[in-house]
Amino acid sequence: MGRSGKKGYFGKHAKSSAALVSLAIHAVLIVTAISFVAVSVYVKEDQTFEEKKVKRPRLKLKKLTVPVNVKKKKIQKPKLRKTIISKPKTKSMDIKMPEISGIKGGTGYMNDGGLGGIGFSLEIDLFGGNKGSGNELEGTFFDLKTAPDGSPTDMQHTSDTMGEEDDQNDEYKKVLQQFNASWNVSRLGKKYFKAPKSKFATTFMVPHMSAEEAPKAYGVEDVVQPKRWVAYYQGKIAAPETGRYRFWGIADDAMLVRVKKDLVIDASLGKRYTDWESKDPRNRKLTSGREKGLVVGDWFHMTKGKPTDIEVLIGEMPGGVFYCRLLIEQDGVEYPKGKGGRPILPVFKTRPIPEKLIPQMKIDPDAATADGPSFGVLK
Predict the structure, then answer these.
(1) Rounded distance between C-alpha atoms, residue 369 and residue 348, angstroms
(2) Domain positions in the chain
(3) Which numeric CATH code is attached to 124-369?
């Protein structure tokens, strides 16, 4: 009985000891595994943190390289353009030279003397050029003695009697008076012969000369007698400064000027074509020099740079000699004084006067100067 009890006791306790050993082993294994995992996780997290630090400076470097590349491109582009433009300039001048030699005046007004100053023979006369740059007043020539179909009007000279000539001159006066009432240019074109060629004038400074020079300038000297003709000019001007301006002028035989559709001066020789009267006491008071009898015009306002309509009509009634001169004064400006204390005024012009024309104008230095502002609309 005693042995059997021992075996049962040891047998039971042997199983319990084995279980405890097994649990202990498993516990050791579990602790080891947990330690291994913890170490692995700790290592991985350290590696991930270090990689993020490495990436940040690379982004900054990329941003810095962008403006550097842009600056290089900007510096290179102008160099390429200069090289490309410089070559065609010589070629374009070679191609256009024949055309420039055929332009009679237009290009020459773009600066002092234009291309005429470098040896080109541009045909610019005192009635204007044959082409314009946009700063001129375009002129149209009408022969009041001839109808559009070439037949004579009642102003055409048919005999040598003085009485007939007087009647025709009276008719000429009536036509200009009617024109001044409406300034209807199309009506002139319907009733009278119009020269096919236009002129582009920048100034009106024609000295005493034969009246046949006007038909010659318009290319109709072979078909138009140098009397009872008119030339109508129209365009736009702009003031270099905002203010009041007025014209001083004289013409033999006719010169009327309208600004913004208002007649501002009738500088014709004698009161023949309009009822306009000067308000200035110095009107026609100059008694010496080439500018004898200068008419003083009305003041008109212009805004700096603003295009302003202007119309000019010049003409010759009996024939013989023609001349016209138009100067401009700005209110508030002090001008040098000439004979009799009259201001020496600048010639009215829309562009600087070509140098070769200045001597032809025979400007009286006691009355006028070729210097002064230009009134062109294009700069």
Answers:
(1) 10
(2) 1-90, 124-369
(3) 2.60.120
